[in-house]
């Protein structure tokens, strides 16, 4: 079993976005889609290259890109609360 922990990602306004399994230490910059556990805003259905989800306050969360041959959500750091483990 890999080490890490599940973090809850929230918007700056406090709305729940999703839960993500973070395996390494440091800031949360990208989230691989296969490691998102509880999607509250519909990130799984988004095509590549567009802003897949918006918070209720209207902020764009990030863009879905291919990172290391896996689809990942590159987060907009100004839209989410700071997460660092």
- Low-pLDDT sequence parts: none
Distance from N terminus to C terminus (CA atoms, Å) equals 19 Å
Strand fraction band? 35-45%
Count of individual domains = 1
Binned, the helix content reads under 10%
Task: Report the strand count.
Answer: 6
Task: List SSEs in N-to-C order.
Answer: EEEEEE
Radius of gyration: 12 Å
The average pLDDT score comes to 84
Strand line-up of the largest beta sheet: 1-2-4
User: Structural class of the secondary elements?
Assistant: mainly beta
Largest sheet: 3 strands, antiparallel
Based on Cα principal axes, name the global outline: globular
Number of helices: 0
Description of the structure:
With 85 residues, this protein is mainly beta. The chain has one domain. 0% of the residues lie in helices and 38% in strands. It is built from no helices and six strands. The protein has strands spanning 5-10, 16-22, 30-32, 36-39, 62-67, 70-75. The strands form two sheets. It has a three-stranded antiparallel beta sheet, with no helix packed on it. Strand 1 and strand 2 (16-22) form a beta hairpin. The chain is globular, with a radius of gyration of 12 Å. The model has no long low-confidence stretch (mean pLDDT 84).
């Amino acid at each position: 079993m890999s080490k890490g922990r599940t973090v809850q990602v929230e918007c700056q306004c406090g709305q729940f976005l999703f839960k993500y399994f973070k395996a390494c230490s440091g800031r949360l910059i990208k989230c691989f889609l296969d490691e998102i556990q509880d999607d509250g805003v519909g990130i799984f259905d988004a095509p590549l290259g567009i802003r897949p989800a918006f918070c209720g306050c209207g902020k764009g969360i990030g863009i879905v890109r291919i990172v290391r041959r896996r689809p990942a959500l590159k987060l907009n750091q100004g839209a989410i609360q700071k997460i660092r483990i």
